[in-house]
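Blinded run. Sample ID left blank on purpose so nobody reads anything into the name before looking at the predicted structure. Input follows.
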Amino acid sequence: MIKLLMSMICLFLVNESLHAKASIKKPDELFHMLNDNNGWNTIAKREDITLSTKSIDGMNLVAFMAKQKTSIPTEIIQDIIMDVKNYGQYFRGTRPFTFKEIKREGDWVKGYHLIPIEMPLMKDREYFFRVHAKGYDLQDKNSIVHWYLIEKDSSDKKMIENISKDAIYLDYGAGMWMAEPIDDDAYILSYRLYLDPGGSIPDFAIEFLNKMNILNVFKDVVKEATQRNITAVP
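Blinded prediction complete.
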């Protein structure tokens, strides 16, 4: 009887482990395409920021990239992106949103994001994500932060039951912040993003929203990082 009970416990733990691994699987192919500098087409330049798009194999939507030259220490950028619980203090240029830090462990943070969709008859969107303070694999030497969507498990539902109201859950998307050196004093900072909000939103509306969101997020992070850097200088 004891052996049977132990076997059942082991089987349960194995199943839980397999489910956890499946729910946090990285979209390596998507990261590879975002990381690759080939295929990006410039669509706009605003102040010092260049905005570009890139077609993603097998997808109807395009990826977006915002970039500019800077000398802000990468550690400051990294600290801001990893500080999920305080996103509300930094991302002031974006439309209303809800972020919640769920778990923090080692070099990663698990978070939740509710995206209000301000269109008639359209449901809000939501997703859980993991953000890491490093490259997406061992060969990625230029990424300082990367994040990706993960599956929602049963324990997550309790944590957002008072936040989420019949929202559509997103399960495919990723982003990365890269720092590509120019010389000893400066580098190109870029934020690269692919996110499909699903549902019945027209593609042109999705791409417009993604374009504005990545631009606003990029500007908010650079603004916060600039202020921190000025404060840090003796």
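Unblinding after everyone has recorded impressions. The longest helix spans residues 203-232.
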